[in-house]
Specification:
The protein has helices at residues 3-14, 38-72, 76-86, 96-107, 113-131, 135-151, 155-160, and strands at 18-20, 23-28. The chain is mainly α and 163 residues long.
């Protein structure tokens, strides 16, 4: 409590006539002025300043996090952009696998078309990697994928698959 607040509380308690406990005939009323020694005043002011600065810091942090949650992380595309912007210096060391496993699950909406496409692409990449040692099964998988794409009416996509 600062000096002014303490002085005001004391003034409120002593401004009216009060009966002294145990002495019914004695009544007191006072006007009180509190004074601090210069070094105590400096220390009290420094404490009040530090407390005010910390409260301001907490309020700003709360506002920042509220904005982040409401405006940035609420939209998967914006969240991805925010994350990438914040990690510009580290992106060269980040593999796509690490990005897909660690970053996307925290910012992607599972129903987001981009997130679903990345999961499909990751699965297909794993399958093709598994088939790299077995040429016959690899050709069979690609032929099956080409057939599925054609059946769905995506001839151009089917043509882009390797032979």
């Amino acid at each position: 409590m600062d000096q002014l607040a303490a002085q005001e509380q004391l003034a409120l308690k002593t401004a009216e006539w009060c009966v002294v406990e145990g002495h019914d005939q004695v009544r007191v009323r006072a006007h009180v002025t509190l004074a601090l020694a210069p070094e105590d005043r400096t220390r009290a002011q420094a404490y009040e300043d530090a407390l005010r600065a910390e409260r301001l810091r907490h309020a700003q942090e709360c506002d920042r996090l509220t904005y982040l949650r409401a405006m940035i992380l609420a939209e998967p595309a914006m969240a991805r952009t925010w994350w990438l912007d914040g990690h510009r210096g580290q992106l060269a060391a980040l593999t796509w696998k690490e990005f897909n496993e660690k970053v996307l699950p925290t910012v992607a909406d599972p129903d987001d078309a981009h997130a679903r496409a990345l999961v499909v692409a990751e699965v297909l990449a794993e399958v093709v990697e598994e088939l790299s040692d077995d040429e016959g099964r690899h050709k069979q998988f690609v032929a099956t994928a080409r057939w599925v794409l054609r059946e769905m009416g995506w001839e151009k996509a089917a043509e882009r698959l390797p032979q």
